[in-house]
């Protein structure tokens, strides 16, 4: 078992409009490209045309506004202006050379299949709308990460993504109605949201309409009460799938 000092920091890294370099165009690179595209990054792919995986080629062809492609091997100048580097090449020496150049430039780098060269590892990922789950075995057993991911996927309530979307909208509307960071209003907002999320089933939250949100805010927030699903005429949900 990993001791505390071996553990990784798990964060949700914001890549929107950051510039990511992907070195390599094979199967692994195609997965990396998908993950960073979902995160809103601008991408440069450097890999000879003859080694391109069809999915990598498809990403390059279908996302020309976000992906710049160079049909050649890596050169050190490729690191200029980048925020984040991913290598997925079948050449261990070239990978380590890229990793050490990144380290000298303090550029975060992942080298597929070479944990000692990585600043961060990829993990097995689940996305359901805004819900993001990453399973990491800290490099110990990637296949087990894959197996545990499948089990977790089966246990996620079926409407979790929609419920989070609706709660996100409600929070935005509440913050617009009762603005301000921290302080008394922040504490009141947090307690009201937490009580509401606890009182409602995930399926019920997922079905919230804009009109019901209006009533929650005007008849609930303004009077410092949390309306129940019954108060708003929502059919009680059967207990959520996770139970
Ligand atoms: C999670 C996932 C994400 C992704 O890559 O997107 C991922 N590997 C996946 C699958 C997978 N990889 C391998 C197998 C074959 C079976 C096996 O070896 O177990 C399978 C299973 C399969 O293919 O089903 C081979 C392998 N992987 C690494 C090494 C090198 C080494 O360990 O030294 C070797 C060669 C070992 C050898 O030669 O013997 C290393 C890494 N792989 C990582 C991530 C990082 C740590 C993840 C963690 O902490 O859990 C890390 C450290 C580096 C990195 O960030 O790339 C993805 C599953 C996604 C999914 O399906 O949900
Ligand atoms: N972490 C993981 O989950 C995982 C899983 C499988 C494989 N791997 C490893 O990841 C690496 C890539 O795997 P793959 O299946 O995508 O390999 P691949 O052979 O399909 O692709 C390698 C790619 O790298 C390109 N390339 C080689 N040298 C290059 C250079 N100097 N500059 C630019 N591009 C270069 C090739 O043209 C090709 O596009 C391998 O080392 C493999 O062992 C990691």
What's the number of extended β-strand segments?
7
The helix tally amounts to: 8
Q: What proportion of the residues is helical, as a percent range?
A: 40-55%
Name the CATH class of the largest domain.
Alpha Beta
What is the CATH third-level topology name of the largest domain? Rossmann fold
Structural class: alpha/beta
Keywords: NAD, Oxidoreductase, Porphyrin biosynthesis
GO molecular function, one term: ferrochelatase activity
Pfam families: NAD_binding_7 (PF13241), Sirohm_synth_C (PF14823), Sirohm_synth_M (PF14824)
Domain Siroheme synthase central: 129-154
Nutshell version of this structure?
Its EC number is 1.3.1.76. Helix content is about 40%, strand content about 15%.
Describe the structure.
By secondary structure, the protein is an alpha/beta fold. Helix content is 41%, strand content 13%. The protein has helices at 27-38, 54-62, 92-105, 142-155, 160-177, 183-199, 202-206, 210-220; strands spanning 19-23, 42-46, 67-70, 84-87, 109-111, 124-128, 131-135. A five-stranded parallel beta sheet has the order 3-2-1-4-5, sandwiched between helices. The chain has a two-stranded antiparallel ribbon with strand order 6-7. A hairpin with a 2-residue loop joins β6 (124-128) and β7 (131-135). It is elongated. The two termini are 29 Å apart. It binds ligand PQ2 and nicotinamide-adenine-dinucleotide. Nicotinamide-adenine-dinucleotide (NAD) binds next to α1. Ligand PQ2 binds at residues 31, 110, 112-113, 115, 118, 121-124, 136-139, 141-143, 145-146, 149.
